[in-house]
Structure formats: structure tokens, C-alpha cells
């Protein structure tokens, strides 16, 4: 069962940049196309002031390390490559959770 991380401020819109994402909504997708919310993982972005970009990237990456897919509004090439090396696919073409569920065939 694929695990999907959604970078969202409200759980409906995919509106967070990967590195600065305040929360990831983690879903388990079933072969039948149902998505079940497993948990919400928060990221304390207020503590990131002055940190090196690599620290931000590692922090966000650690929050989604058990996921197969990450859906965010934006992601830089370095973050995308890091996720790819960990076997995680990142996508930015979806605007809402509803849209992603309708377009992705997971299972």
C-alpha cells in the first residue's frame, strides 16, 4: 500500500513548498483507490531561522522518509534529487487533495 505525503496548510489544498512545509498529511492509498489519513506530521519552521538550506532539506526529508510519493506546490531540484535517491517520487502538478485522488491510480 503506497504511502503519500501531502504538503498542505489545511489538508485540502496542496499549497506548501517542500523545504518550508509546516505540515505533511500522510495518507495510505489502497488498491481500490481509497486514501486513509494515517497522521499529520508537523514541522517547526519557526525554528529554522538562519539555518543552512541543507538543514532545512534534511529536516523535511526525514518527515516523509517512509512515503512513496510526496505532493507539494513547489520543490527545488536538490530536494527532488534527494527524495529520488531515497526512492520517493515528488510531484507538483496537483492543486488539491481531491484532484490528486481523482488523477492518481495508486495501489
Structure report:
By secondary structure, the chain is of the alpha/beta class. It is built from three helices and five strands. Helix 2 links the parallel strand 4 and strand 5. The radius of gyration is 13 Å and the shape is globular. The N and C termini lie close together (6 Å).
Radius of gyration in whole Å, from Cα? 13 Å
Poorly predicted parts: none
Helical content (DSSP H or I, runs of 4+): 25-40%
Distance between the termini: 6 Å
**Main sheet strand line-up:** 3-2-1-4-5
Overall form: globular
Strand content: 15-25%
How would you characterize the largest beta sheet? 5 strands, mixed
Number of strands: 5
In short:
This protein is α/β, with parallel strands linked by helices. Helix content is 25%, strand content 24%.
Question: Which secondary structure elements does this structure contain, and how are they paired or packed?
Answer:
Elements: E1 3-7, E2 23-29, E3 35-42, H1 53-63, E4 69-71, H2 77-85, E5 89-91, H3 97-103
Parallel strand pairs: 1-4, 4-5
Antiparallel strand pairs: 1-2, 2-3
Entry keywords:
107 residues; single chain; 3 helices; alpha/beta; globular
